[in-house]
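User: We ran a pulldown and think these components assemble together. Before we commit to crystallization trials, I'd like a predicted model of the whole complex to look at. Sequences follow.
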Amino acid sequence: MKNKVGRELPEQIYGLKQYRPYEGLFVDPPTPVRMAGRTLRVGRPGANKVLASLEEAIEATGLSDGMTISFHHHFRDGDFVNKLVMTAIAAKGLKDITIATSSLNDCHDFLIDYIEDGTVTAIETSGLRGKLGAYLTKNPGKLKRPVIVRSHGGRARAIESGEVKIDVAFMGVPTCDRFGNATGREGKSACGALGYAMLDSRFAEQVVLVTDNLIEGYVFPYSIPHTDVNYIVPVEAIGDPAGIASGILKITKNPIQLLLAEQAAKVIEYSGYFKPGFSIQLGGGGSALAVGRFIREKMVKQNIKGGFGVGGVTGVFSNLLEEGFFEICYDTQTFDTTAIKSLKENPRHVEMSSSFYANPWSAGPIINNLDVVILGATEVDLDFNVNVITNSNGLLMGASGGHSDIAAASKLSIIVMPLIRGRLPMVRDRVQNIVTPGESVDVVVTDRGIAVNPRRQDLVDNLRKSGLKLMTIEELQALAHRYIGKPKEIALSSDDKDIVAVVEYRDGTLIDVIRKPL
Amino acid sequence: MKTIRKEASVGFVESNDALVTVRPNAAGQGVTVGLTSSVKRQYGEHLENLVLETVKAAGYTDVHVEVQDKGAWDYALQARVVAALNRGGAE
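Assistant: Here's a predicted model for the assembly, 609 residues in total across the polymer chains.
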């Protein structure tokens, strides 16, 4: 079958449901879908939820072969919980476990061992990197079905609709009371918002909290309520604080990133959306952070106060909030210690679940009201499709994240990337893999020029006054090729057994498959 | 045609640069190229041809050129090759 972005896809992929092809940005499901729910259980008065070990929790939940467990990625590259739990599961001799996690980082490379010994047989995630990403790309068939890559909003949709049924959610929480009320704002492993954990806790059949700060008092406000929590396991450490949150993320000194940021800020300024009350999402990437600085200058100069911000929140943004440049900010995951402090102390810094953030199957995630977003890309193509999941050699080394969600929902999506990385041109005839369809991408900002999606003639007209160097996407590509020549396409296996991952669009349709490079 | 007298290296294994090592080949063996590159899949053939042409244009033969490339652009690689040949041919 061929989908709307022109990808030829197999009708049936081993081990997976029959997919509908991607058909467009906002398409209703063919038949009405009801929200899924967990089995209800009777809580006994005075029951003690605190267990001595993860092994006990595995027994208590009845976790068994073939089940699905989930984790969140709020501890980023400092996460210990996934490994603690998987070690206990492997020690119990359980097999055929599906890991449905909100994302994976380099610290999860150890999963290779548990795939090799059959403990883990399926993975569903937003991101895949490091040795694990390379291993899975090079070894299709090690899992019983391809990895399912979902966006953050797409994962929320899949969980709420019952497409993903989590048997046991193992949620690391930085602070928790004996009832199971939990927060990420306090504790030695504080991570800030728990937006991904909030959703898993509400929908998983059973929830086990793993904490290194079980307190005798009461946790309030809480991100996870005790009504969702079956068991609590205290452990020595749930993560490495240095890997969980850095000190305030610094604005880059890289001149190319600064140039990109300055140009992107100018695009915003002249786009027609830079008005009192405008809303914005800035990611945690180097250029996006720097955009915050340039936008601040413009807001001061033109006396413009913004409405709301969304994220992935960094100290750069929480400082803008603190200074009164924005009224409120909605936060699913908090990237640095400055932002964590802000979440704790500033009532206008509001925690939200990943569903509130980006679930396309809801009355309206917050991003449906968003004006402007700055996004990165590993590569874009002549149709403005964006790849953020595979690198130029076809290896899984990125994350879908909220990319496709925000691009679709916002009024102005700006992709910021260098035109050439090393010796590789980043505007391709066809991107290796599509995560975000071009019809949701408005502007591509590079260090050599800016291309506006031709379907946004209104933006072209507005940006003419900016003095920015506007080019067509084809001209940008030709410019890169003039410097470094046109690269050869890398060869991919056409065998359907060599599909290593599928990329779901946020609505659960199939937008692309990732094939093993030859 | 010139030949080199000794092994010589120029450059760095750094982004957008290459470490180029030239070694004398046996007489009549001509120019041979060994390439490792971060962009070999995309530009391998182009880079090998570029090295061969650069050696020829500089007037050398019977030399092996070993290139460890990390995405050098053409002009950088050409310069490294010429410099390595000069260094290898020097008294």
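The mean pLDDT of chain A is 96. That may be worth checking against your pulldown data before setting up trials.

User: Thanks, that helps.
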